[in-house]
Amino acid sequence: MKNFAAKLQAAYEAWGESGGRTPDRFMALVTPEIELHSVVDTSLPHVSTAGPYYGKAGIFHYFAKMAEKWEMIEMHTRNIIVGQSSVVWYGHSSWRNLQTLRRYESPKIQIWNVEKDRGLASSVFMMLDTYSFADAMGMLPSPENS
Where are the transmembrane segments (predicted)? Predict the structure, then answer.
């Protein structure tokens, strides 16, 4: 599990350095049957990046949608917690929506459930500030219109 955590840390570092444009290290850490779920799936189901996503093709599609809609401003890891069958990434990210130009800033938690025998993640669950996300998408009234 510690080996997976080290690879995950490297994947987040590479992704941050690329401005959220190169998810290849994440792709190397997942099973072909990977499932990606997020709080956005149920709280904002009509948003283009809402999932869930299934399989490596689905995960790649998620990253492509993010690159199409968002510009990463910064991302950093605060902690990685290793459990018996999961690795939890806790960090912070800032993005700019490419249509509204509004900034989205949020703490993030991602839970990676890892199959010990394969050493790969079979599911990921993401938690983030959906209010800030919706505001950056232009889904909330702007303060000047209130």
Answer: none
6-46 pLDDT, tens digit per residue, is 999 999 999 999 999 999 999 999 999 999 999 999 889 88
User: What is the C-alpha to C-alpha distance for residues 51 and 86, in angstroms, rounded to an integer?
Assistant: 21
Q: In whole angstroms, how far apart are CA 5 and each of 19, 30, 85, 117?
A: 21, 13, 11, 15
Domains in the chain, please, with CATH? 2-145 (3.10.450.50)
Structural Rg of the chain based on CA atoms: 15
Compute the distance between CA of residue 24 and CA of residue 116 in angstroms, rounded to an integer: 21
* Long-range Cβ contacts of 11-16 (<8 Å, 24+ apart): 12/75, 12/77, 12/89, 12/91, 13/77, 15/75, 16/72, 16/74, 16/75, 16/76
Closest CA to 9 of 70, 82, 73, 115: 82
pTM of the model: 0.91
CA proximity to 69, closest of 106, 21, 23, 112: 21
In DSSP terms, which residues pair with 96 in a beta bridge? 71, 103
Instruction: Evaluate the CA torsion angle 88, 35, 57, 105 in order and state its sign.
Output: negative
